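USER:
Working in pairs, take the chain set out below, taking as long as you need, and write a paragraph about the fold.
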Amino acid sequence: MVGMVPETRTMTWWPSILKSMEHPIVGHGPYFEVGAGLTFQFWPHNAYLYYLQTIGLIGLGAFMWIMTRVTKMSLGFRAQGKKRDNLGDLLALLHVSLVTFAIQQMRSDHQNSDYYPYHLWFIFGVITVTYRLVRMRIDQAAAALPGLAPPEPAESLGRGVRAP
């Protein structure tokens, strides 16, 4: 380790951080220029630094907001308690996948491959759909019992999607 940076990433992370500080709010645009000759910069090898450098604090903040909201949805399997079914188990598995993916992005980002960006958005989409199906089943089960209202979530995720 060199400070808080792994020794193998010092040539990639520090230049990315320095370049990010040139335009910290909006970044350098959604294109990564590696340069040529003496101005060459290695790929940051960190998704969060990549977002910070290319789309700035605004873009990184938006991405982290999406990650937070989807992570809260992926915790929806807990609402079923011991009555989990295959959908609840799928949501638990997707939660583990999302957390693993988010941690892995600190060392190697998903932007430097042809298919990796789709992997993250696929996980987001499947979590969203599965969460909605789980909530629908919970609401239907609660409606089937006379005099028992469905549990109210702590916060709303908008457009009919409720937090776990």
